[in-house]
Amino acid sequence: MERLHQRQCRLLRRSRLARRCHQGRQDRFRSAVDRSAAADGERVGSASVIRDRVRVSSLLPDFPWDTIAGAKAQAAAHPDGLVDLSVGTPVDPVDPLIRAALTSVAEVPGYPTTYGTSELREAAVAAVARRFGMTGLGPDAVLPVIGTKELIAGLPRLLGLGASDLVVIPEVAYPTYEVGALLAGTRMLRADGMTRLGPESPALIFLNSPSNPTGRVLGVDHLRKVVSFARERGAIVASDECYLGLTWGAEAVSILDPRVSDGDHTGLLAIHSLSKTSNLASYRAGFVTGDGELIRELLEVRKHAGMMVPFPIQAAMTAALADDEHETVQRERYRARRTVLRKALEHSGFRIDHSEAGLYLWSTRGENCRTTLDWLAERGILAAPGDFYGPTGTEHVRIALTATDERIAAAAARLTT
Ligand SMILES: Cc1ncc(COP(=O)(O)O)c(C=O)c1O
């Protein structure tokens, strides 16, 4: 018990420290802006200089989707139309049960709470226990988020991390982990195994199993090693479990599975999105759960920033979490599309790596991904190049299963003739 408490203190020390350093950082920031404004003021006027100097977007990578505009134009020129398998956006309609829950409270005028309704948090606890065997959670340890992308992009900052902290992300990764590190100004390392870290003590480790883009699933042993490493070094583990409900054979387990956590959630966060499993990408609906103290800290900060999930969306989420049938129907749609597409890709010379879960086929023709992108575009198919996801993704393309049955059949026909 005493050891447990010490560990929690260590994990939160950074955010408290960060708070103490905050004023100092703000002062440094202001004086840098003032200095540059004074230096350049005469030339262009100080107001525009300040805007130029603090442009946060310049710290971030170029938006990668712009780089495939040419391939998209070529694919769209196909006589039978574009098959867009680049973005993993749902195409099947939101289940009527969820829509009814949304409209049932459409007349409510008041502000929602950041913490969400107790019904929503109870439904989330019941759903993750029923669907994924995640036990030992209470509704107090659930916090709704406005889609999980915003949480991921903000998490290092929300946890008070800064320049001296290291954030670890997977080698090939969903780009928003890097964005989160850049926005908080932390150091960042891509690593799939903890040995790459040497003696370093990271502040935060992002995991993503099943992975976007590779569909790789991390087993219980791997996850246990990460948890034990994180506990030795005082790191927080944020496990992005967006695709946990979309497995095609291999078992995918949560970081909060008792076989991984031994029932101790200290320092562990599991991030769950309803975008893919319940087709709720347009609603912006997710939640984070795990270590109660970390959840309370996130809640406190998010309350001040007004990061509230709209009330009708909370009602829709509650209904979606209480019902497994619509999820099963959707999973089976994707399973069928995956079978058709995988067969066609293999028939036309692709090798599919990993992809044992999730919504993507991580595919290669053993050449640079941009060459493969052009090859697909000639056939009217748009994919996402692997170099979007990290330097080791350059020989793969990510092919999404998120298209209608008709478009998937069209892609398969083009690949096999
Ligand atoms: C790995 C991963 N995490 C998080 C997200 C964000 O999902 P959302 O913001 O819709 O909850 C996505 C979306 O594609 C994703 O692939």
From TrEMBL:
Domain Aminotransferase class I/classII large per the UniProt entry, residue ranges: 83-415
Coiled coil: none
Pfam (any one): Aminotran_1_2
Keyword Transferase attributed: yes
A GO molecular-function annotation: pyridoxal phosphate binding
Cofactor(s) this protein requires: pyridoxal 5'-phosphate
Keywords, ordered alphabetically: Aminotransferase, Transferase
Keyword Transferase in annotation: yes
EC number: 2.6.1.17
NCBIfam families: DapC_actino
Annotated protein name in UniProt: Succinyldiaminopimelate transaminase
Organism: Nocardia vermiculata
Classification of source organism: Bacteria, Bacillati, Actinomycetota, Actinomycetes, Mycobacteriales
